[in-house]
Amino acid sequence: MTDTETDVAEVVLRAFHAASHENPLARGRLVGMRVDGVDRWAVVILRHGLDADVHVEEVWSVTRGGGRAAMTVLCAIADTHGASIELDAIPLKAGPAGVQMTRKRLRRWYASLGFRQVLSSDTMIRPARQ
Ligand SMILES: CC(C)(COP(=O)(O)OP(=O)(O)OC[C@H]1O[C@@H](n2cnc3c(N)ncnc32)[C@H](O)[C@@H]1OP(=O)(O)O)[C@@H](O)C(=O)NCCC(=O)NCCS
Predict the structure, then answer these.
(1) What is the pTM of this model?
(2) Residues near 14 by Cβ (< 8 Å), separated by ≥ 6?
(3) 61 alpha carbon to ligand 1 midpoint, in Å?
(4) For a tag on the chain, would you pick the N or C end, based on fewer CB atoms within 10 A?
(5) Per residue in 116-128, pLDDT tens?
(6) Which residues contact residue 59 at a Cβ distance below 8 angstroms, ignoring those fewer than 6 apart?
(7) Which residue, judged by its Cα, is nearest atom 20 of ligand 1?
């Protein structure tokens, strides 16, 4: 990873921190927005990436549609800073909201947010948009 990539990651992590709230219940940050008059929130765990600027470790909807809202916020931050995002599209047990997805459905879900599967692995990357 080059110095420039490290800097971009740091900027995105800070912006994400500023756009989110402490999760009083566990790890991660609470992030979301109002969509169609409804507050939609998720817990997101974000860290430095290896093959991309930042890595999404976990996304948990805490209200219905929260995962999409949270990822929309994160993608907007990444786009603002020309950053790429990586993740492993492996379904987790559903929390207070959301559903237990199959791998295929989760991949489709992330694809709808601009992520592309890396070869035939679980890894997906959303390239930087300048
Ligand atoms: C994956 C996840 C974050 C998606 O979040 P989301 O913002 O709620 O998703 P969306 O609102 O875009 O909905 C995705 C689909 O799930 C359905 N859905 C969402 N919440 C639902 C609920 N509470 N009950 C039934 N269906 C639900 C939507 O109707 C939609 O169906 P479609 O694909 O047929 O249109 C969420 O389901 C979740 O927290 N899952 C458990 C944790 C997990 O696996 N995280 C991802 C890996 S880190």
Answers:
(1) 0.93
(2) none
(3) 7
(4) C
(5) 999 999 999 999 9
(6) 42, 43, 44, 45, 67, 70, 71
(7) 98
